[in-house]
UniProtKB/TrEMBL annotation:
Highest taxon, organism lineage: Bacteria
4Fe-4S Mo/W bis-MGD-type domain segment(s): 4-60
Family the UniProt entry places it in: Belongs to the prokaryotic molybdopterin-containing oxidoreductase family. NasA/NapA/NarB subfamily.
Cofactor(s) required, per the database record: FAD; Mo-bis(molybdopterin guanine dinucleotide); [4Fe-4S] cluster
The name this protein goes by in its record: Molybdopterin-dependent oxidoreductase
Record keywords: 4Fe-4S, FAD, Flavoprotein, Iron, Iron-sulfur, Metal-binding, Molybdenum, Nitrate assimilation, Oxidoreductase
Length: 704
């Protein structure tokens, strides 16, 4: 039984989704600790989660009132909510009247709660009449969404965290969970400590902290993942380490997978990947001999110009070995953000429709149109993240509404994004913090309530839906994002937004899922509060949830089989290196920072780990450039430059360098912003940017 002043909630950082107990004392001071009863973390929290109380109580950077400027030459001034919403509606109406509904767009975040995601999606697709609603989740897992749809017929993660303790082989590719999903990785480590026969294979051009627990580190050249996975597939097929019965009964397109896998010999693949053929065979052996095999991946596969090919070639390994729909097995895409999965449920992307319905399917569109009672929904996908900023630059998009994300720091080719926002006719930024550099480009700033200041739901990486209660009041005049959205919709004159609370929004979302693969019509806020978290689907109100999908080996495809896919591209299609830019830059996260540091940057304790941006460079490359550890270097690409200190080691491959992505301005300039130099090439299907590969050169900084 919880004490009256203790509340159960969920961490607002990563997609692991740890349970937190928040205690509020008599003076209103908050403390946090891991929830020992929550099935995800069983009381554990990582450094970021442990320090959430500081973030929640530090109001120094908070946006307290709506602020507005009448034109770009005028300063921002405080206004009332009525004035702010009137202005937003008036400008949106006038732009839509003049240029049509596709001249406006919303760019939102995987940190939004499901109810907020649902509302902005309904507002945009169902009432404004454009599909221009996309999210920063496009930057982290849209390639996995496409991979799952192609393989199992739906964007559906088949397994649970509880499968970790039932598995005896993990292939962790393009991910550093020891730093980026720490509590999940701790579960893998503890499982291996108890069961030394458990094998961990890590695929990464860098020797990260995750490699410390690995039995095998495949330090491949960036962009060669598909070649590696195909080589493993070839070995499994040749050595008859495949599940023939599963393939025959429950899969389609095996021949396409085989043909793709046999394009290269294992020796050729090893040469192209820059690793030994024996190591490829060893990895394949671990997988082929496993009783239960889990593949796990994040940005290293997803953030690629061939991200979908990387995803399907990895998923092929689970299908070949029949390692899906059974205990301890399956392909497991880890989400980076706390509610990336919830956003996918409500169709919160330009290419998706609510409740996992298909935007291209006229029957699905009709169902949603009738349910919402709004305008006809367009069949063509709207502008995706990078396309939205391109369209602002070209003038096709006139107005953008940014919610809870900081594209000025997080988008690739950041100077282009700055230029695009300067060109926009009208920019609305709805956020909690002035620390977001994007607020500087806003014509209208709307103060949003933050974590603990509003209620709603989130879904973590294992499809687990949890309720987050309101514990404290929002500062100043900040409002919950959902309330801001429904006030705007009402002002626009749209019906169907007369909500009294977010519980009503959630009920509507749940009802819309009825009869679909993600049916959660058995859920409500009340049930989540009373009974705790559930994994979807939860099709009726006594259903206990679904920890594992496909136990019956019936997949969500039309033929109910899982589908092998020949990767569209085997060879990388990224920007080419050249004599001028001979090194490959890859970007990523560090342990104690989160996204663009609008929250973690405020916590002194988190700055003790890595206080400033840096470039990781191999000793050989550093030597050739006369750089030693701690020197300042300039990293240049065709798009711009970054200036940071170097960390010299042998942990990163030669000709590869790494920059963390979190920093924007350092010492009041943008020299630490990795995205000054990244490129905005995208995967042609998932439209996810190629953050993990661009051509750069590094030179020593000499004081003028
Ligand atoms: Fe929060 Fe992720 Fe750390 Fe868990 S692992 S405490 S969800 S940041």
């Amino acid at each position: 039984m919880l004490k009256k002043n203790v509340h159960k909630t969920i961490c607002s950082y990563c997609g692991v989704g740890c349970g937190i107990l928040v205690e509020k004392d008599a003076k209103g001071v908050i403390s946090v600790e891991g929830d020992p009863d929550y099935p995800v973390n069983k009381g554990m929290l990582c450094s970021k989660g442990k320090n959430l109380n500081y973030v929640a109580q530090d109001l120094s950077d908070r946006i307290l009132y709506p602020e507005m400027r009448w034109s770009r030459n005028h300063p921002m001034q405080r206004v009332s909510w009525d004035t702010a919403i009137d202005r937003a509606a008036a400008v949106f109406k006038s732009i839509i009247e003049k240029h049509g509904p596709d001249s406006v767009g919303f760019y939102v975040s995987g940190q939004c709660l499901t109810e907020e995601y649902y509302l902005v999606n309904k507002l945009t697709k169902g009432f404004i009449g454009t599909n221009n609603i996309d999210t920063n989740s496009r930057l982290c897992m849209s390639s996995a969404v496409v991979g799952y749809k192609k393989t199992v017929g739906e964007d559906a993660v088949p397994i649970s965290y509880d499968d970790i303790e039932l598995s005896d082989c993990f292939l962790i590719a393009g991910a550093n969970p020891a730093w980026c999903h720490p509590i999940l990785f701790r579960r893998i480590e503890m499982h291996k400590e108890k069961n030394p026969n458990v094998k961990i294979i890590v695929v990464d051009p860098r020797k990260t902290q995750t490699c410390a627990s690995a039995d095998l580190h495949l330090q491949i050249l960036p962009g060669t993942d598909v070649i590696l996975f195909n080589a493993i597939a070839r070995w499994l097929i040749e050595k008859k380490k495949i599940d023939k019965s599963f393939i025959k009964k429950h899969t389609a397109n095996f021949d396409a997978c085989k043909e793709s896998a046999f394009q290269l010999s294992i020796r050729q693949a090893a040469d192209l990947c820059g690793i030994s053929a024996d190591d490829i065979r060893k990895a394949a052996q671990y997988i082929g001999n496993a009783k239960a095999f889990i593949s796990m991946w994040t940005m290293g596969l997803n953030q690629s110009v061939i991200g979908v090919s990387k995803n399907v070639s990895l998923m092929n390994l689970s299908l070949l070995t029949g390692q899906i729909g059974k205990p301890g097995a399956g392909p497991f895409s880890l989400t980076g953000q706390p509610n990336a999965m919830g956003g996918r449920e409500v169709g919160g992307m330009a290419s998706l429709l609510a409740a996992h319905r298909d935007l291209g399917n006229p029957h699905h569109r009709k169902e949603i149109e009738e349910f919402w009672g709004g305008k006809p929904i367009k069949s063509e996908p709207g502008l995706t993240a990078t396309e939205m900023f391109d369209a602002l630059d070209s003038g096709k998009l006139k107005a953008i509404w940014v919610i809870c994300t900081n594209p000025i720091v997080s988008m690739p080719n950041a100077h282009k994004v700055e230029k695009a926002l300067e060109k926009a006719s009208f920019v609305v930024v709805q956020d909690i913090s002035h620390n977001s550099e994007t607020t500087k480009y806003a014509d209208l700033v709307l103060p949003a309530a933050g974590w603990l200041e509003k209620d709603g739901t989130m879904t973590n990486s294992e499809r687990r839906i949890s309720y987050l209660p309101k514990v404290i009041d929002a500062p100043g005049e900040a409002l919950p994002d959902a309330e801001i959205l429904w006030k705007f919709a009402q002002k626009m004159g749209f019906t169907g937004f007369g909500y009294n609370n977010v519980s009503e929004v959630y009920d509507e979302h749940c009802l819309l899922t009825k009869g679909t693969e993600i049916d959660i019509s058995g859920l409500s806020h009340q049930r989540l509060i009373k009974e705790g978290s559930f994994q979807w689907p939860v099709p009726h109100n006594t259903h206990k949830g679904t920890p594992r999908l496909f136990s019956d080996r019936r997949f969500f495809t039309n033929d109910h089989k899982s589908h092998f896919n020949a990767p569209h591209k085997i060879y990388n299609q990224s920007e080419k290196t050249s004599p001028e830019f001979p090194l490959i830059l890859t970007t990523g996260r560090v342990r104690d920072q989160w996204h663009t540091r609008t929250k973690t940057g405020k916590v002194k304790r988190l700055l003790t780990h890595i206080p400033e941006p840096y470039l990781e460079i191999n000793k050989v490359d550093a030597y050739l450039r006369q750089l030693k550890d701690g020197d300042v270097a300039i990293i240049k690409s065709i798009r711009g430059q970054v200036q940071v200190k170097v960390k010299v080691n042998f942990d990163i491959r030669e000709r590869v360098v790494f920059l963390p992505m979190h920093w924007g301005k350092v010492l009041n300039n943008d020299f630490g912003r990795a995205n000054n130099i990244t490129n905005d090439l995208v995967d042609p299907v998932s439209k996810e940017p190629d953050f993990k590969y661009c051509a750069v050169e590094v030179v020593k900084y000499e004081k003028p």
